Amino acid sequence: MMARHKLTPRVIRHARWAALSAAVAALLCLNPGGAHAYPDRNILMIVPFAPGGPTDIIARIISAAFQKSLGQSVIVDNRGGAAGNIGMAAAARAAPDGYTLLLTSTAIAVNPALFNKLGYDPFKDFAPISELVNAPNVIVVRADSGINSLADLVARAKAAPNTFNYSSPGVGTKSHLSGEELKLRAGIQMTHVPYRGAGPAALAVLEGTTQVGSVALAAAESLVKSGQLRALAVTGAKRWFSLPDVPTMIELGYPGFVSDTFNALFAPAGTPAPIVQQLAKASQTALHTPEALEQAHNAAFEVVAGTPEQLTARLTAEIPAVKELVARIGIKPE
């Protein structure tokens, strides 16, 4: 027969101390920096592009919101170069403690198809936090071109092979890949003319240097609304909220033709799951405020504010899809 222990004050104190120790240990696991709750110091947010661009704009929105919700300063660190690879490699090497984050564009999904040496692995070196925003590309022509629809463009390009050209923000951008996919799917020939950014690529169409443009929507939207450019199609899964009369490629008979640009937040791989979840919730809260929604829309983005699981699924699907398209186009990795 098992002996019964008498609950003396000493035994009770010992039990209480054991329970308290277990609770403290659990809290320390949640807060790897020690007894202080995360975050207890400034957070560095690496943006792998120059200041002033679309990704930098979103980073400023998020950093300001994080400072309010997390109670710590968030410092945006622009580390441009090598199509974003320099900044992404730096973020991959950072300590996985939640105090260095990466806010990057679709380059993290496109660059594995374009470069033999990245300096990072998009799957192994990062913990996805949230897809923050995205935006489609748009196919544009001059309003006085006489091309009134995508069908018109395709018919003219087929009737006069090798006479059309199109501009994009640069080789390997999602806009470039959208233009090449249009050529493949429609069976037409157009010469690609790369520019340094979406703004110059849109102006090339306006000035008549190129007949067609495949550019990020933000660069062309004001020119479309002013009547200087005509938007033939957007490459999103649905019509764009501010250009409701412009059809999608899917509506025009190109099933599955979705090519958009996202901006997303990552942490170095190994960052504790509770911190990742805390940052994901902070991102979602930040982007659903009226102020952030307005700022994102003004920058021609739609708010996504997704979960870590959704961002993981997107990368898992998009990286091999981009590699397949790049191979079909014939772009050789550098």
Give a written overview of the molecule.
- By secondary structure, the chain is of the alpha/beta class.
- It has helices at 9-30, 54-70, 85-92, 107-114, 150-159, 174-186, 198-207, 217-225, 273-287, 290-298, 308-329; strands at 43-47, 74-78, 100-105, 126-142, 165-168, 191-194, 212-216, 229-234, 260-268, 302-303.
- The chain has two domains: 43-134 and 261-329, 3-Layer(aba) Sandwich (D-Maltodextrin-Binding Protein, domain 2); 136-234, D-Maltodextrin-Binding Protein, domain 2 (3-Layer(aba) Sandwich), CATH 3.40.190.
- The chain is 43% helix and 19% strand.
- Strands 1, 2, 3, 4, 5, 6, 7, 8, 9 and 10 form a ten-stranded mixed sheet that branches.
- The longest helix has 22 residues, at 9-30.
List keywords for this structure.
334 residues; globular; disordered N terminus; D-Maltodextrin-Binding Protein, domain 2; alpha/beta
Order of helices and strands: HEHEHEHEHEHEHEHEEHHEH
What CATH calls the topology of the largest domain is D-Maltodextrin-Binding Protein, domain 2
Number of strands: 10
Low-confidence stretches: 1-7, 9-15, 17-35
Radius of gyration: 25 Å
Number of separate structural domains: 2
Distance between the termini: 77 Å
Structural class: alpha/beta
**Broad shape:** globular
Strand content: 15-25%
Concise structural overview:
This protein has 334 residues and is α/β, with parallel strands linked by helices. The chain has helices spanning 9-30, 54-70, 85-92, 107-114, 150-159, 174-186, 198-207, 217-225, 273-287, 290-298, 308-329, and strands at 43-47, 74-78, 100-105, 126-142, 165-168, 191-194, 212-216, 229-234, 260-268, 302-303.
